[in-house]
Automatic annotation (TrEMBL):
InterPro entries: Cu_polyphenol_OxRdtase (IPR003730), Cu_polyphenol_OxRdtase_sf (IPR038371), Cytotoxic_necrot_fac-like_cat (IPR011324). It comes from the Bacteria. Keywords: Hydrolase, Metal-binding, Transferase, Zinc. Coiled coil: none annotated. CDD domains: YfiH. Transmembrane segments: none annotated. This is Purine nucleoside phosphorylase. It catalyses: S-methyl-5'-thioadenosine + phosphate = 5-(methylsulfanyl)-alpha-D-ribose 1-phosphate + adenine; adenosine + H2O + H(+) = inosine + NH4(+); inosine + phosphate = alpha-D-ribose 1-phosphate + hypoxanthine; adenosine + phosphate = alpha-D-ribose 1-phosphate + adenine. Purine nucleoside enzyme that catalyzes the phosphorolysis of adenosine and inosine nucleosides, yielding D-ribose 1-phosphate and the respective free bases, adenine and hypoxanthine. Also catalyzes the phosphorolysis of S-methyl-5'-thioadenosine into adenine and S-methyl-5-thio-alpha-D-ribose 1-phosphate. Also has adenosine deaminase activity. GO terms for molecular function: copper ion binding; hydrolase activity; S-methyl-5-thioadenosine phosphorylase activity. Belongs to the purine nucleoside phosphorylase YfiH/LACC1 family.
Amino acid sequence: MNIQDFKTADDRQVFYIEDGKHDGGVPLLKFHLFDQLQMVDYGITTRSGGVSEGMYASLNVSYTRGDEKAAVDENYHRTAVSLHADVSDFVLTDQTHTVNIRKVTGKDCGKGILREKDYTDIDGLITDEPGIVLGAFFADCVPLLFIDPQHHAVGVSHSGWRGTVARMGRETIRAMCDAFQSRPQDLYCAVGPSICQSCYEVSEDVAQRFQKEFPDAGDELCMPGAPGKYQLNLWKANEIVLSEAGIIKEHLAVTNICTCCNAKLLFSHRATHGKRGNFGVFIKLR
Ligand SMILES: [Zn+2]
């Protein structure tokens, strides 16, 4: 796979692909912005490089959508190789469209893969301990990734429309400030592949919640579409949330890859009418 296979919304070089297959790993989408920091192993999985079949083909990383456990286990082993980690290093979210964040420590390692999670309703994970792989799951919702190079901390969170209107990005930053004394102006942040405005039709009640929360954003955020419908721009909304929370422009990478426009390459809930797996977003401090 290569980046030219993806349909992008513009010509910005936001991402590149690290093709880890030759090492027994999987391809990962990565941000140029993060690599200059040289302090994390991270990446966004695609549908390529795994062993799942049918609607989960091939690199599904969700245990809760009906895929065979053995296949998902193998998918994690391959993903771990690309992250220079072991599956016992992973800690996974318990996503229910909340804005709850968990501070992860070494005691949590393996939760969600090798052992049961002892927490629920967690849509964001943060840590300052090296070697722990934080993981979250997506198929159109917006992934947010955070790095604090000053305090050596990272975070990942899940921001669908509910999370976005509740400002999940701000909540994750607040959690990092509370836990690690992070300062917003030091943080690097990336908005990952998710559904684009053209593909994301929402009902009027959802549109009104965004118009109320982001009163100055106008049509760029929420454009009238079919009768009674609106086209919602989650990329823009998250950019506003992160900027207002203090992330500086030079530290922010906003995606230009839509999951729904690229449903052969990334899992998309809308494009497949829910018959799909999840791709994963993973980050680990070196
Ligand atoms: Zn699209």
